[in-house]
Amino acid sequence: MIPQLFDRSALRRHRDRAAAAAPGADFLFREVADRLADRLDDVTVSFPLALDIGARDGVLARALEGRGGIETLVRLEASEALCRAGGGIAVVGEEDRLPFAAGSFNLIASNLALHWTQDLPGALAQIKRALKPGGLFLASLFGGETLTELRRGLLAADAATSGGAAPRVSPFADLRDAAGLLQRAGFDLPVADLDTIRVTYDSPFKLMADLRAMGETNALAARPRHFARRALFVELASQQTGRQAATFQIIYLSGWA
Length: 257
What we know:
By secondary structure, this protein is of the alpha/beta class. It has a domain at 8-145 and 171-196 and 249-256: Vaccinia Virus protein VP39 (Rossmann fold), CATH 3.40.50.150. It has nine helices and seven strands, in the order ααβαβαββαβααβααβ. A seven-stranded mixed sheet has the order 3-2-1-4-5-7-6, with helices on both faces. It starts with 7 loop residues before the first helix and ends with a strand. The relative contact order is 0.18.
């Protein structure tokens, strides 16, 4: 049995909340969607039927408009609220439980969603199966150095206030693992590469507010189930010596069926 690393019901609640967030909170998803979509500009093949996995409100679908010869795009999203927000053809479903027949799509793309799967190898195998022969898979997901500054700050604050360390930031895949998983899933011409986006905030609390608005707050199954104590945040704030840095390491994946 695959271990349940994430609480998917909590993740859906977080995504539902993101659907009602103020405009602008999805800046990171828009930026990475544009960079991911740019990769289609060098491909001469047309992809009439495409699937967007973990589609949110259609941020990647908008970036893909007019590209790759896409005629029909289906969005798959775990949050019904985000499905409704994006319009078009949308299916409520999980990233690692694809409800599609083998050989259904010419293109399958995913923007900053696959880091939430319980079983990434299994998800990649399902994606490969759902592609038509000659189909293309494109994805972005957060890499291992993502939010390393916040992770260190929370670990230090936990140690200072409780003498322990609660799981507060998700683990992320590294580049070597991601490349190996593409090969394991049987993709042809697998490619995995890295990009880094660095952002600064006035405080760690501004960063955490943005993560909340993105729907990217802690959904680990082993997360603390009680509200964090005030002392933790007082200690976290006391560590602040300037603006809060936030690193987002992006892994890009591509492979052919």
